[in-house]
Amino acid sequence: MPDQDFLQLPDLACRDLGGSVVYANDEFFAERENLVAPGPPVFDSSEFGHKGKVYDGWETRRRREEGHDFAIVRLGVPGVVHGLVIDTAWFKGNYPPFASVDGLCVEGYPTPQELLDAKWEPILDRVPLEGDTANTFAVDDDRRWTHLRLNIFPDGGVARFRVHGKAKPDPAFLTGTVDLAALENGGDVVACSDQFYGSPRNIIGLGRARHMGEGWENARRRDGGNDYVVVELAGEGLVEHVEIDTSYFIGNAPGAARLVGIPADGDLADESSWVELVPRTRLLPDCRHRFRVDAGTPVRHVRLDVYPDGGIARLRVHGRLT
User: Fold this and answer.
1) Percent of the chain scored above 70 by pLDDT?
2) How buried is 45 (Cβ within 10 angstroms: 0-12 exposed, 13-18 middle, 19+ buried)?
3) N or C: which terminal CB in the chain sees fewer CB atoms within 10 Å?
4) Quick one: 7 exposed, middle or buried, by C-beta within 10 A (0-12, 13-18, 19+)?
């Protein structure tokens, strides 16, 4: 994967996907949990606390002995890492000059002490960092990880730690009817006509949207066409029922939608290979629409067309893996 292309992949460590910072050896100035917070870090030059300047990030104290600081992140979904972002935004005179990253793949739910005792494998060798910068590093490694350890040398502050890659959940849990499109199950967006107001990846995220900003919204279309999004499913499967949710989209919901499936041997650009799952159907604003599906043909991708444009909060494609 070319450098920087990995930034288009989901952040497996983000709190929105269930990521968590389970341990840090020091967080004297700023809490470790900030590392995986969604959204960019913010800064208020006038905000101070009892321990000094308040930062939207993780910051350790000035180290006076040998060694280095580190934090352990449990990925929201296990997966293959294709790139890392060690963002030192707003840390200018107090950022770590170097960092490295190690990985661990372990089953179950280990305690912090068990993680400290585990055998970690290097993912990113020690690299120099710049202050107040989103430092990006491509990773060429096809191993599956459940936890990452961010090492900083010797101390300092990091605002965000982004882990871009492809989800690879435990297949033992993908039994029966599951949401084949869900990001946490290994689905992902592979094409989209327009994402002016909101990322299409939002529609396959965890839980229900809490407001309009947590969905996919395109610009107002003036050319007579329509917008669409294509999702690669967790695997080839038989679709049984679908949910198209327009919650919170009241004056900007699509007028109608259609969902088709593309078999594994089909062509994303050739309509003759598509399988109709939900025919073009009128949609209501701010409404969860559910549809039974009886297609009988396994599909590997689905394409959601909205007419002519408008916002979608969530897309759920429930079915059984073949």
Assistant:
1) 98
2) exposed
3) C
4) middle
Instruction: Tell me the pTM.
Output: 0.80
The pair of three-digit structure tokens given for residue 86, joined into one six-digit string = 């060690």
Rounded CA separation 106/78 (Å): 10
For every residue of 232-267, DSSP letters joined together read EEEEEEEEEEEEEE-TT-SSS--SEEEEEEE-TTS-
Note the residue count of the chain: 322
Q: Which domains does the chain have, with CATH numbers?
A: 5-167 (2.60.120.260), 175-321 (2.60.120.260)
**Per-residue pLDDT tens over the stretch 143-178:** 999 999 999 999 999 999 999 999 998 888 887 899
48 C-beta neighbours (distance < 10 Å), count: 10
Give the tens place of pLDDT for each residue, 223-250: 989 999 999 999 999 999 999 999 999 9
